[in-house]
Amino acid sequence: MPEIHITYLNGPDIERLALTDAEILAAIEDSLAAQGRGETVIEPRVHLIPEPGRVEGHFNVLRGYIRPLKAAGVKIVGDYVDNYKKGLPSEFGVLNLFDPETGTPTALVDATGITEMRTGAVTAVGAKYLARKDSKVLGHIGARGTAYWNVRLLDHLFDFEEIRVHSRRPESREAFAAKLSADLGKPVTVTEDWRSTVEGADIVVEASRLSEPTPLLRTEWIKPSAFVVPYGTMSAVELSLTDIMDKLVVDDWGQCKGGPFGSLRAHVNAGKLSEATLHAELGQIVAGLKPGRERDAETLLLWHRGLSTSDVALGVALLQKAERMGIGQRLRYA
């Protein structure tokens, strides 16, 4: 057997690579289009809960394949809501990439940053196709790692006149706003409650960190014609939220229709979100197979659970840039 080597990219490597907003968005948009054309395989995620009832945390295992990139991958990411008490991020991840023709491992990549970037990119690409083009006010709930990329990539596309942010802990939301303001070069408003964040906003993103489902985001606060993205692990929305929507869009129905977690889990269980009420998967819209926003007056919702193919796409983009820049380590596998 010939020698086999894998490429290893750690967290500092990924920071040095510094994918631009445009590079991140392009990789994710291309992967969504491939999904819409049927050129991907997405296996519904599975969960490992090591200490149910004792430790607030679990692992997600995501598996996917993208034919145009000739890459398959498996990502394992932890989701531990109380990690901030230990000075740690709530999510750590590792991505393994493989040659889909032979099964040979090709890369091992720190996926913590990938998880944050790709989540924000799906939010932003969704807004590109589903939000009003003249959206000027963003209301964002949550300050975890993915939240930063939600705001940054959305602002890259829309150049908001007003950005409002809120999270449960004052120190968290203040630091979040300060970093965003410095990086975006514009003021970011810290709000004291959910209502003042959401009410009247053109785009609403709910990325809260709840320990159990709690309807903190009221349907009556949603502005007609708004674009709403709820994706907390535990639901923070009312059951009536889907009733006001002209179109319901998900990233992958196979993932959204089952499993114990997700912001619209109760809506699926109640039949409010089903194959009959679902307008499209986002990839179908990106690929041009189904329409996105058709009228300014539409009120639209995107629920994304997180796509394994987004992880694979960003992993490949990082590896390609790393090769060009001579970054990363080559490790002997066999």
TrEMBL record:
Native source species: Tistlia consotensis USBA 355
Which is a Gene Ontology cellular component entry for this protein? Answer: cytoplasm
Q: Which domain of life is it from?
A: Bacteria
- Residues annotated as coiled-coil are none
The protein depicted here goes by the name Ornithine cyclodeaminase
Pfam families cross-referenced by the UniProt entry? OCD_Mu_crystall
Q: Which PANTHER family match?
A: KETIMINE REDUCTASE MU-CRYSTALLIN
InterPro entries (UniProt xref): NAD(P)-bd_dom_sf, ODC_Mu_crystall, ODC_N
